[in-house]
Amino acid sequence: MTEHYAFVEENYFRIKSCELVRKNIGISYKVIDFSDNKYILKINPSIHESLTGLQYCVEGISSEIKIIKSIPNNKWFNVPTPIKNKDGNFISYCHDSCGNLCSAYLLKWIDGVTLENCNGEMDKTIKQFGVSLSRLHNMMSEVSANKDLQRPIYNIEKFEIIISKLQKAIIDNIITESNFQIFLNTFRHAKEIIRTLHKDRSTYGLIHADLQGSNIIIGEECKIGFIDFTASGYGFYLHDVADAIATMNTESRPAFLYAYNDNCEYDAHSLHVISTFAILTYLNAYSMHLNNKNMSRWISANSDYLAIQICPRYLRGESICYDIHI
Question: Is the pTM for the entire model greater than 0.85?
Fold first, then answer.
């Protein structure tokens, strides 16, 4: 902690606190200066593309910052503002405990409570979330045409990695062979649905790609804050919508979807597309936690639910996006 405290003061400004807030592939710290301004410092483990993904290399981080900077101030939502260092650059460099070079960047902190911890005015919050996500996609579409952006692409090939990971879980007795076969048949159907989707500016572009409850901040007057664009990349906007409904209870989903769709109902095909991305979201959640032994029992139990109760309904063409849950 002390070295990061010194790192901020050396590269940015004097601070009075530096507190760890999240640690996964990268590390995040909440930083407060002597004027009580709050920031988040993000440190990534490597400056080269590796198994951690394109988004963690310098080119990927630079592109993430370009995306965030391209989103204008607006009345619907906030995004974190990137801060330049003393040299006038958005990316700084430091070393980890093993001496490896890491990249770091500083963003303004967005105050509020996370969606997963929000208890007040949920009807208004959920509707505001739907409207704000729609506006976010509209604004991000302006920068989607930038060919220089180095960001992940959420295509069929990326989803196939999920299935290959889940297949290995059979060997570890985390997922049964029968459940995996159901997931495989479901994935084959999902691939065909995705292949039929039309790509244009209204359906496809830059998406957030990680709309879990901890990345949605609810501020004053229910103003939404979108944080952590680390996973942002190219995909269908309904992928984000499916991610978002996974963060909320089933009762809130109709209002959210209605608000996102400009107060219009969805046709059966659109609901099936959202259901497609919803199932892929849940399969991805399993694949991400396979190496966490503490999650093995949860994956086993929840995969039974998905394989037995949800996938058959999805394969029959039913909409499951209103009631699927983890």
Answer: yes
